[in-house]
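USER:
Before I trust my own judgement here, I would like a peer's view. Write it directly below this note and I will take it from there.

ASSISTANT:
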Amino acid sequence: MIRTIEDVLGLDHLNVYTATQRPMAAAFDLDQREWSYKAKPSALLANTQLPIPQSSFASSKNIPKPTHDAAYWAGVTKEFDFSVEDHLGDPAKFNRIVWQGLKGDVPYPSQRTGADLRKDRNRLPRASVNLRGANPTNGSR
C-alpha cells in the first residue's frame, strides 16, 4: 500500500522495502464507466466554517463539539510557524498547548511506566491487538 501511495503522489520511495514491492495497480480501473461512490464529510467538520451543507451530516449520530473556537487556537499558537510543516520550534510546548486545549484541567502525562518495550518485541503486536488469532499467552495460532 505504501508503495502505491508513493507512486500516486510521485514521491521517492521511503526505502528499499517499498521500492521493491509491486504497486497495487489492479485496484484501480481507469476504464470504469459506472461510479457509485459518494464522499461523506467527517462529522468533525460539521462545526467548521467550511461550505459544507448541514444536510451532509444528517446521518451522523454524534457531532463532536469543538473545545475552543478558531480565535482561541490562533491566539495560543501565534508564536509557532505553520508556514512549513513540522517547523514548530518547540514541539514539547506545542504538545502541551494542544493537550490543555483539548483536555482542560486533566494533568499532562508526566510519569513513564518504565516498561522496557525492547524485550520480546515479536510478542508486542499480538499482545496488544491479538493479530491473526494468536494467543498472547503462549504464542500459538
